[in-house]
Specification:
384 residues, alpha+beta, Jelly Rolls, 3 domains, six-stranded mixed β-sheet, five-stranded antiparallel β-sheet, 29% strand
């Protein structure tokens, strides 16, 4: 779980309640740790893994750290900020890597905080360790996909100056000599953003990458063709604060694993961006809706969906209308969070027949009530 960045002074305003019956209060080792391990350890471990340029700020496997963060843990659970996922509960079981936490587990952790965040018997940790996952450790290769068959990066680092707030250059990543002589089918692709200043990356061969989003692993027999080309072109989008000391040097890179020669490719994977332009969010509007449609002209299989909005994004919905008029909600994100831009990958690719229509709806909050809104007094037009 990633917790919101709050000033350390804020910790002083949350007291750890002391239970009137400490004997009945949950303890870290016996009660809280197994829940943390089953729900949070993939990120919140002693050596937190880097996922797309970001990592968890603390370990929940360590009692001392968990106790310090206990008030914010309670707040994150109570508000639904953690675990980060976005997709409504109705989608449980549909997507890979889902991050839902059962109500009973949430209530137990909140009770642990309210009871004084007690430590309990450290020997009980052995039972938790033997019966639960300890999370996902970054492979020694430094890549989630394992040792890549090909790694590409910029010919030279991209300098993003202190005066730059928003910049979208198109940059070429050279393919090493000898690696582009024959077309290859991509089985896995991983984008490694240079840091949180990378707003997003777009490439026809790598899809879309943002901080916090993991690699693309295609089902067996599905792939993207990497042609005979000495360069891979990527569209970078940098966004950061301005002023003295804010300049950065970006070394974003990408890694690929290929199918073996002779492997059969049954389906060619394409990344389709469906932007919608020409609208304006009125200043102060807390719930402005924008909608658009996309007609499906051929039979396709849908692998994943990656909704993308900016700071005023509030909620979004993808709804499919089949040729017979029947409708199905493919994805409903009622509380969109710009800080967590997930790719929702189906456990099983979803067949969509030709003649279907995708109805897309987005809601925006341009009011003072939106904590992320940089200026609620301004009308806001479409921007990438």
């Amino acid at each position: 779980m990633k917790l919101p960045a709050l000033p350390l002074a804020a910790l002083a305003f949350f007291g750890l309640a002391t239970s009137t019956n400490a004997q009945d209060a949950p303890t870290f080792y016996q009660d809280a740790l197994p829940v943390f391990m089953n729900n949070c350890a993939a990120c919140h471990q002693d050596s937190p893994p880097d996922v797309g340029g970001i990592s968890a700020p603390m370990s929940l496997m360590d009692y001392e750290q968990a106790k310090i963060w206990a008030p914010l843990i309670k707040n994150a659970l109570a508000t639904g900020y953690m675990p980060p996922w976005g997709a409504h509960e109705r989608h449980r079981g549909e997507f890979k890597g889902e991050r839902y936490m059962d109500s009973a587990d949430k209530e137990l952790l909140i009770a642990w905080v309210d009871g004084g965040a007690l430590e309990g018997d450290a020997n009980a940790a052995n039972d938790a360790l033997s019966s639960s996952s300890v999370g996902t450790a970054m492979p020694e290769s430094g890549w989630w996909i394992g040792e890549p068959d090909l790694v590409v990066g910029f010919d030279k680092p991209v300098y993003v100056g202190a005066d730059v707030e928003d910049w979208q250059p198109t940059v070429q990543m050279p393919v090493p000599e000898g690696a582009h002589e024959n077309p290859k089918w991509i089985a896995m692709a991983e984008l490694d953003p240079g840091g949180p200043w990378v707003h997003h990356i777009v490439s026809s061969h790598m899809g879309v990458g943002v901080p916090g989003r993991g690699p693309f692993t295609y089902p067996e027999g599905w792939g993207v063709l990497l042609p005979e080309d000495p360069f891979i072109t990527v569209n970078m989008h940098y966004h950061k604060d301005t002023g003295e000391g804010t300049d950065v040097v970006d070394n974003t890179r990408a890694g690929f694993k290929f199918y073996e020669e002779g492997d059969v490719i049954d389906y060619v994977v394409e990344t389709n961006l469906l932007p919608h332009r020409g609208w304006t969010i009125p200043a102060g509007d807390p719930n402005y809706e924008v909608s658009n449609t996309f007609d499906v002209e051929d039979d396709i299989y849908l692998l994943s969906m990656g909704p993308h909005m900016h700071y005023r994004g509030k909620a979004m919905r993808y709804e499919l209308e089949y040729p017979d008029g029947e409708r199905e909600v493919l994805l409903w994100v009622p509380k969109y969070d710009f800080n967590w831009q997930f790719l929702y990958e189906y456990e099983t690719p979803k067949f969509i027949p030709s003649g279907s229509t995708l109805h897309m709806s987005w809601w925006f909050d341009n009011s003072e009530g939106n904590r992320w809104n940089p200026d609620p007094s301004q009308d806001v037009v479409y921007g990438p």
